[in-house]
Design goal:
Strand content: 5-15%
Structural class: alpha+beta
Largest sheet: 5 strands, mixed
Pfam family, one: RsbRD_N
Protein name: Putative transcriptional regulator
InterPro entries: CdaR-like_regulators, PucR_C-HTH_dom, PucR_C-HTH_sf, RsbRD_N_dom
Distance between the termini: 78 Å
Helix content: 55-70%
Number of domains: 3
CATH architecture of the largest domain: Orthogonal Bundle
Strand order of the largest sheet: 4-5-3-6-7
CATH topology of the largest domain: Globin-like
């Protein structure tokens, strides 16, 4: 085997001369104690760790070159940080690898703690996790390539030992890198989530949201698509023997992930397993005073497919300062649409204008709903009246829908007229009955 020295690019000029304060390689790298010479695997009769110790000063520079060549994310770090902290971390990694080759003992807690701390700093700096893990793998790979160049066929048992120690080193180091990185990202995401929720609360309460947006690091859009979302149960939530809370959390996690993927900008949401408010930024150049029904329907379909549950949404659009009123309107529209038997999907104010108005407080609303009070003990009469009006006063279609004989429909309509004084086939009474039914159905939807 030959060492791949020739193809290595030269170190960038700004990194070629480390600052004076950069510590020189530790003395144990320059002159190893004599008692170490007989430990660990040997290639060509020479201990592997001694070969690494001799190469260590040059290896640190070569690893840095490979780091910048193979992992572009490190180019974003300041040159002084690369010359200082990152170079020291590379040297420390080489020393740890030498010790593993010498003794077969994996890095201890103190060294792993330093790796976790370094990884956390890279997470805070925005270096991708794969680049941080890849840096340790590149260093170990380069070290292994240098010493394997001296291996001969007779050294096969020692090659196997060296490989085993290499894999063990990479295993514990990769775990430490991931642990430090994830812990830092979780803390950062926690802070980010708190600031986002503060912005959402400010928008829903009304008032000027600019200070909360600045704290969250979010640019306010020209307007928001405001949704009041109702989330149906996932089929597994009703399955016997299944932990409902686990299924609900999984449903929400998939919904949020799909919402992030399908949204330009930062969506804001406060969702439980049953639903909640969602604000989607909208910076389209040609704003519309009402939501785009087709686009909204497509979005809800994708979200429902992702989370495995039916979604019903009231929708409105508003500038950031008017989100509070739009959120109340969207919630009312959704409640009215649900109460009047409209199915899943998007619902706009224009869909429920009469029902929405009749759900507003007032003596006329209460009087209209009271007209149907005599039907309360006879739910089949109320259901027949609703089906008759829905099917455009067609008794046969009504009978088919209810799975009864047309004569049964006629009988029930006569009983309804006798109890309420309103005949569904008379023109003057028809409008009153429609309004009374709307007022009755929206009673549960009143805030």
């Amino acid at each position: 085997m030959t060492a791949p020295n020739a193809e290595l690019p030269s170190l960038p000029a700004e990194l070629a001369s480390p600052p004076a304060e950069l510590p020189s390689p530790p003395t144990e790298l320059a002159s190893p104690p004599a008692e170490l010479a007989s430990d660990g695997p040997r290639f060509g009769g020479r201990p592997v760790h001694l070969r690494l110790l001799a190469l260590a000063p040059a290896l640190a520079g070569e690893v840095m070159v490979r780091l910048l060549d193979r992992l572009p994310a490190y180019h974003a770090l300041p040159p002084e940080q690369l010359r200082g902290e990152i170079t020291r971390q590379v040297e420390r990694g080489i020393r740890a690898f030498v010790e593993v080759m010498r003794t077969g003992v994996l890095p201890g807690e103190a060294e792993l703690a330093r790796i976790r701390e370094s990884s956390a700093r890279r997470a805070d700096e925005g270096v991708p996790l794969e680049s941080v893990v890849g840096a340790y793998h590149l260093g170990a790979q380069l070290c292994a390539a240098r010493v394997l160049a001296e291996a001969a066929p007779a050294d096969l048992p020692d090659v196997a030992t060296a490989q085993d120690r290499l894999l063990g080193y990479l295993r514990v180091v990769s775990c430490a890198v991931a642990a430090g990185y994830v812990q830092e990202r979780q803390a950062a995401l926690g802070d980010e989530q708190v600031s986002r929720q503060a912005l959402l609360s400010r928008l829903l309460e009304g008032g000027d949201p600019r200070a909360a947006a600045d704290r969250a690091g979010i640019r306010l859009p020209a307007r928001y698509l405001v949704l009041s979302l109702a989330i149906g149960p996932h089929p597994d939530e009703t399955r016997p023997g299944v932990n409902r809370s686990v299924v609900a959390r999984r449903k929400l996690r998939r919904l949020r992930a799909e919402l992030e993927r399908r949204t330009d900008g930062v969506p804001l949401a406060a969702l439980t397993a049953d639903g909640g408010p969602v604000l989607l930024p909208d910076d389209s150049p040609h704003p519309s005073p009402v939501p785009d029904r087709a686009a909204l329907a497509a979005l809800l379909e994708r979200l429902a497919r992702a989370c495995g549950a039916e979604l019903t949404a009231g929708a409105a659009t508003a500038a950031p300062a008017e989100v509070a009123d739009a959120a109340r309107l969207a919630a009312d529209v959704r409640r009215v649409a649900t109460a009047t038997g409209r199915g899943p999907g998007p619902h706009l104010l224009t869909d429920v204008l009469v029902e929405y108005q009749l759900s507003r407080p007032g003596p006329a609303r209460d009087a209209l709903a009271a007209l149907l009070a005599p039907l309360a003990p006879r739910p089949e009469l109320l259901a027949t009246l609703r089906a008759f009006l829905t099917h455009d006063l067609d008794r046969r279609r009504t009978a088919t829908h209810l799975q009864v004989h047309p004569n049964t429909v006629d009988y029930r309509l006569r009983r309804t007229a006798a109890l309420t004084g309103l005949d569904a086939v008379r023109g003057p009474d028809l409008l009153t009955l429609r309004a009374a039914l709307a007022a009755h159905d929206t009673a549960p939807a009143r805030p």
